[in-house]
Amino acid sequence: MLSYRHSFHAGNYADVLKHVTQLSILDYMCQKDAPIRYVDTHSGAGGYSLEEKQAQTTLEYKDGIQKLLQATNLNPLLQRYASLVQSFNDNQGLSHYPGSPWFAQHILRPQDRLFLHEIHPSDFPLLAKTFSRDKRVSCRDKDGFEGLVSLMPPREKRAMVLIDPPYEIKSDYKLVVETIIRSHKRFKQACIALWYPVVKRERIQELENQLVSSGIRNIQLFELGLSADSSGRGMTSSGMIVVNPPWTLMAQMNETLPLLSRILAPTDGQFRAIELVGE
Which residue numbers mark the site Interaction with substrate rRNA (predicted)? Predict the structure, then answer.
């Protein structure tokens, strides 16, 4: 159950989609001075080397962040994302890739709070060390699903949540929906962003159906793939489902997804941006 290590997949096309979406949401939320509570349910190590064995085993970053940094036709959102990744590398090429906690830490302000969850015994010490000097950050060695629910409603009155489990077990597909529903009941205003992999399309269709029938309003979905759905093994696409998205998000993603598809998969790229449930 704890075999997943994100270091094998850091910087792949799924990370690009996830972090571009995260960036768009947080940039919008930071336009208001009121403090934000940021909750990350599966934080990983916080950052990853692309030169070590794990990343070099899969080389997935080459079809993700590496291609994007080599592109020249980026829109403002992708330019900002690329500049943050370059900053993580001290503007010295591409040897490391930041995790979602790092993006949040560098976007959020002094008045905001970050709650980072990780239970992998190898990743949690790295996460805690990385953020030990930031008083805004609380690293929690506990289950992220339960941790999220316990943190709602937030004292800050505003919240952005990132849920991105590894889906090592099938029950995660059901658990993410249950967690969203429980969190939403405790704080209906939270912006909740859920990452999902497309390995078997029927699992994602069921996930969508459960959210549509949950009674939660204002849900959008964004998906990016390197190829069409397949009956073979492995992930062909990944997506982000966002509850209470900023009003700017759909327009930004409608502009950004075609660009990402052309850059990362010019021949077989797939994408979609839909309103899953209206306001």
Answer: 4
